[in-house]
Amino acid sequence: MRGFKFSFFILNFLFLSLITGCSSSENGSSNTSQSTQRICPQCNMPVPESNIYSCKLENNGKISYFDDIGCLILWTKNQKIDINAAKAEVFTNDTHKYINIKDAYYTINEKTPMNYGFAAYEHKKEDTFYIKIDEVKLKMLRGEHLANPKIRKQILGY
Description:
single chain; 158 residues; 2 domains; 6 strands; 15% strand
């Protein structure tokens, strides 16, 4: 009889824990933070809150955020979207704001979320090699980025 009461108590406790746990997760703050989190449609990684190395694309009234410029290029190719026709912006490392993707200058040797290596800048610095978006797009589609081990060795030396 004593074992029965103990088992009954444990089952009731587990049942109450389950009900309480389910109802608190529906109204908790963790659910609201997930709904505001931006996910890259190409690699399904979260876009960092700092926006560093990120970009966004507005096409047909919908805004998509990307964690890396390389993801934007690959995704637009797969979706058959012309970057020049859509409104695309990139977050710059020097001024920390979004600017038109065509107005930015890009370096090729930085540590980015997907290791493609392209980082955007609004202003040029002396003694730094920059390319424009058309060349970034060409290099991405050819596989000439830091995620490629041969290119990484050529650019970084390791």
